[in-house]
């Protein structure tokens, strides 16, 4: 905030030097009255409430109003001001005080180049014109200024301006922004949508404005917020965007919240930022979530986020903003400024701008106030209607008496509509169908009129200062002409509603067709906007195509919630679409996207499964569908995660058949991955190995990294699976090579989901080697990935791996707690794959804690799950664990029987490594038969790659101990 340097009457006030001069001579004034004078003089003519002055001068410390009265009295004494006939400070009874002198600015030093460079004006310069003198709102203005001062001091300020339509929310915000001068300010507008709007639309609009005004911001976006950079395609090349998509595929939407919060923190280190978001009652849910996240964030940030909304709509429509505003206010994380209608005094002040004598006519003022309820937009509309510059006051009063002033604003707007000619009415109706903002080219195409004539008509409507606001001046190298906008959203809303339904439907079709033509010519048009127009134009098939496109774009832009909203509307439209191949094609697309979005946001529950299944049942009728790879992989993946292995294999077989018939390499790869993974989990290693090796060859031939089909890079997945399969065969060196290649490729690709996949499988590999230190390090690495990139899939796994490592390293009860909590959370999400192994970890932890009975309960649950799912991959270890529990309980014979079951299962799975572990256990703890010792010796000889492992060294020790002397 710049220090005051002003002159009023005989006084010079120099705030920077704490000096008050009268005719050039210093005036003695104590610090508190001096600060009070500065607070009043900073807002001449504005009413400053007692509370505002107490906060401004005494801060938040508790002081009574008597202290303020004393300071005012001292100040008046120094200024020689009579409270009954004030020249400088006017008392507003029971409310506060007003500085009524007319100040003049004194010359001040020019700002330094550095200061000028950091004062970036963005949205304020975008079309704001000088406005008439601002009326009233002194308290509201003071609270906004207090929020800005708070932000400038490093404490983030979330401020909401609330009120009814036409109450002056936008006027207040524009006045406030204008008073701040050259600051960094970015503005975004929420717009009314049919269904779900584009995620983060007003924030993206503000960010784009900020990038145009500050050329350093795109570089910061690349460093701190790459997911947001992807939303602004003009800031990067097509190749850069494709690389970003590969690197960021699979990220959760929480990542976008964290990136934007970090971006705001970093940006405001250099300069304070005012972020303005208007009409939050039309906001998408993603923007509300972002506001919530930023408001609750800790740490320093020179940020003021100023938003507006219609209070009644937020409450009546159960908007997600309503509970949020209550929560944040209770926690003192925001402040809400609710605007009231104008008082009679403020109405008189408004009239005085046009006629001082009418403003003094109490009857006229009272009549106008009664007829408009003091709503500023009503007042402005009626004054415009009854006054003009040539009419005398008597004629104006007569006109007010004669005009039937409507009772509400909609009726006032109806009155304006009735005065429109046929051509302006048609133009504005088409513009209203476009939205609050519209392009001249769009309206011209829709009306089949010449662009020049439409532009001239728009300019004429701007000059009337009723319907339209002029577009802002183009900035930089913008190719498209800036749009026109309705002066107030209510004017657009009423005009839209007053257009006959049939005509409105036809206009939506025409606007949709116009937008299609513009899009084909390179004008950016949101697919959700096209979908909405054709939806309202009752062209269901065209609308369905665009809803599908919008849903896919939402997934690419890390917003599965928006994708779900688009597909839900599309699914409702499908019921109206005519039967036929085109409908089936679109239904497969929509259901597949529904499954993918539900999987990302809700896990592998029934919604994701059912959506994929619906698409899968339609696929046989159109086996060449463009989305079949994504569908089959997604469905097979979800089924395998749910532990529905038989169904997953059926999908893999279908995929294999389609791949063979079409020679589709991508489909072959899908079949190999699903077959290999399920066969591995169900203990068929030979079949699993064959599928995995075929898949690896196919993946290398395709050289495909993470795409829209695969969750993670397929080569990384396959190398990781082969590493575990090879270690169970005792081929430790080859297993290590696969594990190393998996990790190296994941690091090269830098794709978060791929890195998580590689780390997860490496942890499974290290568990089989008994490497607790290695598993602990990998669990921390997984946790870091989950936290940084919001990877929901790894949230539970990193905790059970950490729990297993802690149990092995001497903290078994804490380890058990982590394992069990993670397992239960995973189960709630519907993921049962690998459940028998995780329950085995829990049993092992309790056994290490000395709780044999608890371990037995966990083990029985693990064995039951293994039986239900036919999940045999971890069964040998479970039988060995049962032997350990039996021995701890003194049931030695039962323990020996369990070890022998482990040996049988290992042999059945062709897993010599697991067989070696079981034979070592038998020889160490039981009386092994000679044939069993010979089998152990044969295994040691057959597993040269494992000779340096702890388990093989143990086996050699056992064999050495029984050799004859």
UniProtKB/TrEMBL annotation:
Pfam families tied to this protein: AAA_16, Trans_reg_C
Keywords: ATP-binding, DNA-binding, Nucleotide-binding
Alphabetical list of InterPro entries matching this protein: AAA_16 (IPR041664), OmpR/PhoB-type_DNA-bd (IPR001867), P-loop_NTPase (IPR027417), Sig_transdc_resp-reg_C-effctor (IPR016032), TPR-like_helical_dom_sf (IPR011990), WH-like_DNA-bd_sf (IPR036388)
Keyword Cytoplasm: no
SMART domains: Trans_reg_C (SM00862)
DNA-binding region: 3-101
TM spans (from-to): none
Domain OmpR/PhoB-type residues, every copy: 3-101
PANTHER family: GUANYLATE CYCLASE DOMAIN-CONTAINING PROTEIN, TESTICULAR SOLUBLE ADENYLYL CYCLASE
Protein name: AAA family ATPase
Record organism: Variovorax humicola
């Amino acid at each position: 905030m710049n220090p005051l340097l002003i002159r009023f009457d005989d006084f010079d006030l120099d705030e920077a030097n704490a000096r008050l001069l009268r005719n050039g001579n210093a005036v003695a004034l104590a610090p508190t009255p001096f600060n009070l004078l500065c607070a009043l003089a900073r807002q001449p003519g504005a009413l400053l409430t007692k509370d505002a002055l107490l906060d401004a001068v005494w801060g938040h410390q508790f002081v009574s109003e008597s202290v303020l009265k004393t300071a005012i009295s001292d100040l008046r004494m120094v200024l020689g001001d009579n409270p009954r006939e004030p020249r400088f400070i006017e008392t507003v009874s029971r409310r506060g005080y007003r500085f009524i002198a007319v100040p003049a600015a004194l010359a001040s030093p020019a700002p330094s180049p550095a200061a000028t460079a950091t004062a970036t004006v963005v949205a304020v310069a975008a079309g704001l014109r000088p406005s008439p003198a601002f009326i009233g709102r002194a308290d509201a203005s003071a609270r906004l200024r207090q929020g800005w001062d708070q932000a400038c001091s490093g404490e983030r300020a979330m401020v909401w301006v609330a009120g009814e339509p036409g109450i002056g929310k936008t006027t207040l915000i524009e006045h406030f922004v204008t008073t701040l001068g050259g600051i960094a300010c970015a503005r975004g507008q929420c717009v009314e949508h049919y269904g779900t709007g584009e995620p983060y639309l007003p924030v993206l609009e503000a960010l784009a404005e900020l990038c145009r005004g500050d050329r350093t911001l795109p570089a910061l976006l690349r460093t701190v917020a790459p997911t947001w950079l992807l939303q602004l395609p003009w800031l990067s090349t097509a190749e850069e965007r494709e690389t970003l998509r590969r690197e960021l595929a699979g990220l959760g939407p929480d990542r976008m919240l964290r990136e934007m919060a970090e971006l705001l923190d970093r940006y405001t280190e250099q300069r304070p930022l005012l972020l303005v978001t208007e009409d939050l009652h039309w906001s998408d849910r993603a923007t509300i979530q972002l506001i919530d996240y930023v408001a609750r964030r800790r740490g320093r940030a020179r940020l003021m986020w100023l938003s507006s909304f219609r209070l009644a709509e937020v409450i009546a429509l159960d908007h997600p903003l309503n509970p949020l505003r209550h929560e944040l206010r209770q926690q003192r994380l925001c402040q809400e400024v609710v605007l009231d209608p104008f008082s009679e005094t403020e109405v008189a002040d408004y009239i005085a701008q046009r006629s001082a004598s009418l403003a003094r006519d109490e009857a006229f003022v009272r009549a106008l106030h009664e007829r408009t309820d003091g709503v500023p937009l009503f007042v402005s509309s009626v004054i415009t209607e009854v006054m003009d510059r040539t009419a005398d006051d008597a004629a104006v009063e007569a006109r007010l008496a004669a005009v039937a002033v409507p009772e509400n604003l909609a009726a006032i707007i109806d009155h304006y509509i009735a005065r429109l000619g046929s051509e302006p009415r048609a133009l504005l109706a088409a513009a209203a169908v476009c939205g609050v903002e519209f392009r001249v080219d769009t309206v011209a195409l829709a009306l089949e009129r010449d662009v020049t004539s439409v532009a001239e008509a728009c300019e004429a409507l701007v000059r009337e200062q009723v319907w339209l606001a002029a577009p802002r001046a183009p900035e930089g190298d913008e190719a498209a002409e800036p749009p026109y906008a309705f002066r107030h959203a209510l004017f657009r809303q009423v005009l839209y509603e007053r257009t006959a339904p049939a005509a409105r439907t036809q206009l939506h079709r025409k606007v949709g067709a116009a937008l299609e033509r513009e899009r084909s010519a390179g004008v950016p048009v949101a697919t959700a906007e096209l979908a909405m127009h054709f939806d309202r134009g009752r062209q269901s098939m065209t609308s369905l195509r665009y809803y599908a496109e919008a849903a896919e774009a939402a997934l690419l832009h890390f917003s599965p919630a928006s994708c779900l909203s688009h597909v839900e509307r599309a699914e409702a439209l499908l019921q109206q679409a005519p039967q036929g191949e085109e409908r089936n094609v679109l239904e497969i697309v929509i259901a597949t996207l529904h499954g993918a979005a539900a999987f990302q946001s809700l896990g592998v529950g029934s919604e994701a499964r059912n959506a994929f299944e619906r698409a899968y049942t339609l696929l046989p009728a159109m086996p060449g569908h463009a989305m079949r790879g994504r569908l089959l992989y997604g469905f097979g993946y979800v089924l395998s995660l749910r532990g529905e292995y038989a169904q997953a294999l059926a999908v893999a077989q279908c995929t294999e058949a389609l791949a063979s018939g079409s020679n589709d390499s991508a489909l072959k790869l899908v079949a190999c991955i699903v077959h290999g993974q399920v066969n591995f989990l169900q203990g068929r290693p030979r079949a699993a190995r064959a599928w995995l090796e075929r898949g690896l060859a196919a993946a290398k031939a395709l050289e495909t990294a993470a795409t829209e089909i695969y969750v993670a890079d397929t080569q990384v997945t396959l190398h990781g699976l082969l590493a575990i399969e090879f270690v169970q065969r005792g081929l430790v060196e080859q297993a290590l090579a696969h594990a190393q290649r998996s990790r190296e490729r994941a690091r090269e690709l830098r794709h978060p989901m791929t890195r998580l996949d590689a780390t997860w499988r490496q942890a499974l590999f290290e568990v089989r080697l008994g490497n607790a230190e290695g598993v602990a390090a990998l669990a921390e690495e997984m946790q870091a990935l989950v936290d940084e990139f919001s990877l929901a899939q790894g949230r539970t796994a990193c905790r059970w791996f950490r729990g297993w490592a802690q149990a092995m390293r001497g903290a078994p009860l804490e380890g058990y707690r982590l394992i069990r909590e993670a397992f239960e959370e995973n189960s709630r999400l519907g993921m049962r794959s690998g459940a028998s192994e995780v329950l085995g970890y829990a049993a092992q932890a309790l056994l290490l804690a000395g709780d044999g009975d608890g371990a037995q309960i966990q083990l029985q649950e693990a064995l039951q799950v293994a039986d239900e799912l036919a999940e045999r991959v971890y069964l040998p270890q479970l039988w060995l664990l049962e032997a350990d529990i039996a021995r701890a309980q003194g049931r030695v014979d039962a323990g020996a029987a369990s070890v022998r079951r482990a040996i049988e299962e290992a042999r059945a799975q062709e897993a010599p490594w697991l067989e070696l572990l079981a034979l070592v256990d038998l020889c160490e703890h039981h009386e092994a038969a000679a044939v069993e010792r010979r089998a152990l010796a044969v295994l040691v000889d057959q597993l040269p790659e494992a000779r340096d492992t702890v388990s093989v060294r143990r086996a050699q020790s056992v064999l050495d101990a029984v050799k004859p002397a």
